[in-house]
């Protein structure tokens, strides 16, 4: 599969502070890629470099076939969508009028507004003035703005951090639909559950370094001890290593009806992040 993003030895230094330390990674066309890291690890800086807002101090970046020097061109900008802290709306206009303006700006047909309002579940709020919306609703309008021109690639910096669980699930469904239609999604998040359900692959960023990159399932398998945790009706809690010999013991426990609960040791992404980096993802 072709790559949407190729990053080789990317570094970003701000004065004495190295925000990104020679990182390399690729994002395949059509995938949802999650960049996970604690506060200050360099996620926003990475997005700023990949969208042409900042230049790297060193290294090579290629996004949708555009190299570092071409990321400021309008041809490139028309192919990407961005949702970040800097994204803003016209507070005195309605949801619909905001999106109408952005449609005109991007040269997108107005009929896209209905589609996108459905995707972010704001169909019934189109006539509301933006200043009167809740934080979560505003975030969904911002998401709609980032997606209105059907970009090939979208960058979402903590897109669901202000959302309640129901809105978050709606946004995830919208993003999944968008992804199924071929859009590549680059997302940063602190939320490990979000990364597990949403992302095809994730990379762990810590102190400006990428320390793991793979699918959530592959990482969970890699860091699993593959042991079975068993609780018996007698109240015993057993940790049984997954070996052929222990299989017999497990079989006997099951066949004699002693097993109350059993699960395999499958660490969460948050636990893996802690193991790899020594840091909580908050
Ligand atoms: N314009 C700037 N000038 C100086 N230092 C900066 C600048 N932008 C970012 N940094 C520094 O670079 C490092 C990475 O910051 P960045 O905002 O990329 O982290 P982040 O992972 O997005 O954090 P958060 O999750 O809190 O948004 C931090 O140490 C930050 O202080």
From TrEMBL:
It comes from the Bacteria. One of its GO terms (molecular function) is ATP binding. SMART domains: AAA (SM00382). Keywords: ATP-binding, Nucleotide-binding, Transport. Gene3D superfamilies: P-loop containing nucleotide triphosphate hydrolases (3.40.50.300). Residues 5-232 form the ABC transporter domain. InterPro entries: AAA+_ATPase, ABC_transporter-like_ATP-bd, ABC_transporter-like_CS, ABC_transporter_ATP-binding, P-loop_NTPase. Pfam families: ABC_tran (PF00005). This is ABC-2 type transport system ATP-binding protein. It comes from Lentibacillus persicus.
